[in-house]
Design a protein that fits this description.
The protein contains 46 helices and 10 strands. By secondary structure, it is mainly alpha-helical. The strands form 4 sheets. Strands 7-8-10-9 form a 4-stranded mixed sheet. A two-stranded parallel ribbon has the order 1-2.
Length: 1035
Amino acid sequence: MFPLFTGDDRRQRRMNLGGASAAATHDELMQQAKAIRNERLQQRLRQEAVVTLQRWWRAQLNRKAMREELKERFDSDPSRIDAMRCLVLLKTDEDRLAIWSERTADLGQEHFAGLATGLHRESWIVLMRQVAIQLLRFVACHPDSKHTLPHLKIINALLDWTATDAIMGQNIVSYLLRNDYYLFLKQATERIPVEAKATSTALPLLVPLFTAPFTVSPVDSELYTTSFVQTVQYILTIPLLPNRLPLQSLSQFSARLPLHMIHLIVPVMQELTSTFPLQVRIHLLANLCTFMPPRYKVMKTVQTLEAYLELLTLLVVDLPASVFEAPSADSDVLQSSWIHGDDGDDEDDEDIQPIAGPSSSALPVPQTRPAPAIEVDAKTRARLRTLAASKHVSALLAATGAHPTTRLRLYAFFLALYTAWPTCRPDVLSGVLAGAGGGLVRELYRGHVRGTALVRDDGESGSTQVLADPAHASAWLPLIFLTDLYTQALLTMGDDEFFASRSPAAPSTSAVHRNPLTVDELVSFSRQLLNIAFTLYWSESVTSGGKAPEILISWEGVRDKVTKLLQAIHARDSRRPFTPPDHWLISSQLDMTSFVDAAVYEEQALSTDEDASPSTRHGGRALSKRQLAHLSPRLGVLNNIPFAIPFATRVEIFRQFVVNDMIAYAGSAHRFERATARTRTRVVVRRGNVASDGFDKLANTNLKGLVEITFVDLFGNEEAGIDGGGVFKEFFTSLCKEVFDTDRGLWLATKKNELYPNPHSYAKEPHSLDWYRFIGRILGKALYEGILVDVAFAGFFLAKWLGKQSYLDDLASLDLELYNGLLFLKNYDGNPEDLSLTFAVVEDNFGVAKTIDLIPNGSNTPVTRENRLQYIYLVCHYRLTKQIRPQSEAFFEGLSDMIDPKWIRMFNQQELQILIGGVNSPIDLDDLRSHTNYSGLYSDEEQTVTTFWKVVNSFDHEQRKALLRFATSCSRPPLLGFKELQPNFSIRDAGNDQHRLPTASTCVNLLKLPRYTSERVLREKLLQAITSGAGFDLS
């Protein structure tokens, strides 16, 4: 009702009294329709499934009925061709297959031939090849079954028969090969235990099937090639194949195996070997090692040799070393820091291989862990090890001798072999040198290396662009193999042989063992190698990753090989110079001033990083030379090819390294500023017991601080000298005189009076090793403080400090009789086996003879023509390195407490000796006078001073040395002249008493000279003073 009539303007509520509406929404209707459709779909699917199930069930019933019918038809007469049809249709009826094979075998060859030539020939061929696959499948799964024998008889009969009908035979064999013929044979053979070969009845029938397809097809056919490829792929990869076959079967198989056709696999060789798992490659390689070597003499074609060598190379590449030799229990034990691993990869079996990997100037070198050991049985490993045997190496050299074009393939194989198996490197290279002599080195250099872009004399060889240019990839293989081969040759090449080209008629040198390269060739070759090495150290863009082309060796590995040969040639040049002046220097390519500053900065930054983060050190050891090359190109050059930098520059760098270390330790490099309570040690030493007191009081003292010495005379009174440095130098001189005395038993001397550690067993006892460690620390102190020590060390012992190899000529200074004996063996024209030598040495220990094997089972390994170079090398290595290893390690451990090993590696043996003992040359008095300071009433023109220099000029060499020792405590001049003497030599007025002797303060290099009025008196007093040998009481 309208409010107009009621007077109420409020809105009235509307109410629906009819209940809720039943009308569905749109979404609900859509969902209902969808559900109805799904239900109809499911119903239809169920109906279709039922129909399918019924159809399958009816098919099964029909199939079962048909199988029963086929069985009945087969059972009615198993010998008919219809029975074969039944077998093919039945497919998996092993029982009836056995019945058929037994019945067919019993009926004999005539029945077989009747079916093969009858009216149903074509049907028989189709059926027979399918039945043959069933037989092979059964044999592969059940080689020990009683039914296997008749099955194999049928297959053998089939292949024998097909040999008489080429078309039929090729048809059947082609079908068999397409349907895993060789795979079934492989599976059957592998399922027969190795120990069951003598009792197995299947093997004599199984083995002929390996080679049966070769008798069916022509040699030049695709079928023959397929048969050969699958034989290699399946049969020659069977583990322990020679051990699995009965002797007669093995002989037949070896005779029928057409390995002279191995070139047939060339088109698929890369694909085949790349898909082989590691274990398959190992077994193929081991089987080739068994079956191929007897055929080397009959491998007449180039293509066969090249294919075989390429296959060997592909199989060897990237194999872990554990395949060739079982890893020892202590293979993970790190060596002490005195062996850096860079030059010792072929010195010791236990040497750690250098680390390879990308370079980084900011990060520490990543550590690589050894690959997990591969399980390899002893017999397979023994076969693999024959690859590096001297007889095998000689056989390959002989086989390739008639075909020079195959030599590069041979070099690639040798390089791949000892790259994968580093410890065989000396064996392989010695075998090559023994088998081919120096002619191969000449062939490599003159025919393959000289004139290539890598070593061309055009000013561009060794540049970054040339080294990385893919156009020059083929030049790397002969260069690297020549580098390794000549490095090995130098190990056992005496200096007389090395320089034989200068005196062709030298009677003591066998023409066979003369240096294969002339001195002129070596001068050119070494300079070219230096350019390459310097580029690889200096240019990170080349060595930052990847491998050198074609040889599959990392750029770091190439650099190490070139470096090693350079070091060996430079060592010869250091002993007997043959290169022109400045031959080894690359200073023309560098600004030496900036080089020194940068090297010092990089070393300081590296040392700071090592101190801050011990994890940057290589397992707690000093950084190796390869690691330094990663982290710092300049330190890489200084530690690997230091001779490229002038000696004076390296000495300057060394002293700056020491100064920086002094500042880091004591806050200053100046003596008196370093004399703080924290860094100063005061020691009282009895003059008659300098060595024992020094050992007792300084063995565990940090010698980088100042050591102040107070001497006590024979009466127990302290001497009057105040140690400003000179007293310590006198103590040090006396200490060295005692500890290096050969009568103490720690050291022996060569005929040149050069010292080396006593190799006797008592020198290896703990107390003796403590003494070596102490002596190393004391000598390190001398190098640290710049004190020259009048002692000479044997070159082979200094080589141990530097981690370098020793050579045959080094043995002459140690044991001349043994050296001459080894030279006799090396040049012996007869059969070395007549000398009854073995790979063992006898060591006398207090009258007890002890035999030490140089190689495993060395006492029973005779020295032959092929392995005599290896024997010579091992004997030298034992005498020069292994006998003194513990002593050398202890000595270097003490030395490393004071001097960082990378500082020492900037020098060679001769330079290191100069660094220790100074320049053993005449004293340059003009240089001394021009760097002399005067005080008191003296000047250079004063009468007494003029008379002094006149008298000194009349002294002989020994008297001049005595004067120098009297005033400075060292008889040798500084390395770089008297300008380096700190402080400078000084002469001071000491009054006019004509009876007083001259005195000296060696701590400040000061000579106190009275004003003598007579030249005769000055001479007498001066000589009396410098030859009296008095201590500080003289002052």
